[in-house]
């Protein structure tokens, strides 16, 4: 065979190798498996899920099903908010595939779909402890503008481009109902505050607009705005963190804040300071012990509404009492300040008129 023919054969062989490589690379970035959008997670039944593990940003959240819903393992079994858990199921079920992008594991790291490189992952487990399904979310696509991401199902090599991707909440406290107490100022009857060095009490008028400090010494007057802040300290009380009471043995709860509502709900708060942080224990009771009974004859609508309101208030008080029993809450700094104000910050000197000073 001539050298010229050998050269031609060599060129053809090299071309075949290049073509094979191109075909291989193209195969690893296949076209959409089906036209249009498809469900990423199929057949997920919330009733069959007994544990959910969420990982994001180095944090792990474990939600475990109990008798009354899910609890959070990383928060000593504190109840998870039903609304948040339901939203988790819904948002995961709403994720859709746009197209199949690759099945080559060599691309996983660049796409962010390994567990270590991901934007987050969620896995659902059954009562037997086995995985039902789960997924890993990777990087956003270059053309996605924040709406499209790479992702794959756990134990599946296929990486998809996804849309309708939810933000994964990565801290355990985000799965709680952080809004703990809500009391309208017009519903407050009185407040008492006691600290290591002093104590005082505040009472409110029918609308909560006029707040009166009982302990005002001669030559002093109350600061109306400061008094209103204390009276309204439970208007929207939320927490930043929570832990079991057995983990708070080093805290000294030497502040008391008691609030009586006009509907007979009584809040007894114990507060502890540690550096700039404020921690709270909360006890709730319903002080009206008289049973609600049906009167003989036809009762007026007004009487029925009063009884209904009392039963609802009692139910809410008992429910909150059960929720807060055995827990210690870390409060935002401004809320801790309002709950532990000393008496000295609620009063000021009465400034005498110069003309009065000159009078004999």
Question: How would you briefly describe this protein structure?
Answer:
The chain is an alpha+beta fold and 360 residues long. Helix content is 23%, strand content 33%. It contains seven helices and 22 strands.
Mean pLDDT reading: 88
Secondary-structure element pattern, one letter each = HEEEEEHEHEEEEEEEEEHEEEEEHEHEH
In helices, the fraction of residues equals: 10-25%
What is the helix tally?
Answer: 7
* Count of individual beta strands: 22
Task: Estimate what percentage of residues fall within beta strands.
Answer: 25-35%
Radius of gyration: 32 Å
Gap from first CA to last CA? 136 Å
Structural class: alpha+beta
Main β-sheet, spatial strand arrangement: 1-6-10-9-8-7-2-3-4-5
Shape type:
elongated
Number of domains: 2
| Largest sheet entry | 10 strands, antiparallel
Uncertain segments of ≥5 residues (pLDDT<50)? 1-35
What does this entry look like structurally?
This protein is of the alpha+beta class and 360 residues long. The protein has two domains: 31-175, no CATH class; 179-293 and 300-349, no CATH class. 23% of the residues lie in helices and 33% in strands. The protein contains seven helices and 22 strands. The protein has helices at 3-27, 82-93, 108-111, 224-231, 301-324, 333-339, 354-357, and strands spanning 38-39, 51-56, 59-66, 69-72, 78-79, 96-102, 120-125, 131-140, 148-153, 159-163, 179-181, 188-194, 199-204, 211-213, 220-222, 237-238, 241-244, 255-261, 265-274, 277-286, 327-331, 347-349. A ten-stranded antiparallel sheet has the order 1-6-10-9-8-7-2-3-4-5. It has an eight-stranded antiparallel sheet with strand order 14-13-12-18-19-20-21-17. Strands 11-16 form a two-stranded antiparallel ribbon. The model is unreliable at 1-35 (pLDDT under 50).
């Amino acid at each position: 065979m001539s050298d010229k023919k050998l050269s031609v054969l060599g060129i053809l062989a090299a071309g075949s190798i290049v073509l094979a490589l191109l075909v291989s690379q193209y195969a690893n970035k296949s076209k959409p498996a089906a036209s249009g959008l498809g469900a990423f997670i199929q057949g997920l039944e919330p009733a069959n899920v007994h544990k959910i593990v969420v990982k994001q940003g180095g944090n792990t959240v474990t939600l475990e099903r109990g008798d009354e819903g899910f609890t959070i393992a990383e928060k000593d079994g504190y109840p998870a908010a039903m609304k948040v858990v339901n939203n988790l199921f819904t948002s995961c079920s709403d994720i859709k595939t746009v197209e199949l992008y690759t099945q080559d594991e060599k691309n996983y790291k660049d796409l962010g779909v390994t567990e270590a490189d991901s934007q987050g992952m969620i896995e659902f487990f059954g009562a037997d402890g086995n995985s039902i399904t789960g997924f890993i979310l990777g990087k956003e696509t270059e053309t996605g503008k924040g709406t499209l991401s790479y992702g794959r199902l756990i134990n599946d090599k296929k990486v998809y481009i996804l849309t309708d991707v939810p933000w994964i909440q990565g801290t355990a406290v985000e799965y709680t109902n952080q809004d703990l107490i809500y009391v309208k100022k017009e519903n407050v009857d009185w407040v008492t505050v006691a600290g290591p060095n002093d104590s005082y009490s505040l009472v409110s008028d029918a609308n909560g607009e006029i707040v009166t400090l009982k302990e005002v010494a001669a030559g002093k007057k109350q600061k109306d705005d400061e008094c209103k802040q204390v009276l309204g300290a439970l208007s929207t009380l939320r927490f930043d963190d929570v832990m079991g009471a057995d983990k708070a043995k080093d805290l000294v709860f030497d502040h008391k804040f008691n609030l009586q509502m006009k509907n007979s709900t009584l809040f007894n708060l114990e507060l502890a300071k540690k550096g700039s942080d404020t921690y709270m224990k909360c006890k709730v009771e319903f002080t009206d012990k008289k049973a609600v009974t049906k009167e003989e004859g036809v009762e007026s609508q007004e009487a029925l509404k009063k009884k209904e309101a009392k039963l609802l208030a009692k139910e809410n008080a008992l429910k909150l009492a059960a929720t807060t029993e055995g827990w210690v809450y870390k409060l935002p700094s401004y809320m801790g300040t309002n709950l532990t104000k000393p008496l000295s910050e609620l009063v000021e000197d009465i400034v005498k008129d110069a003309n009065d000073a000159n009078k004999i």
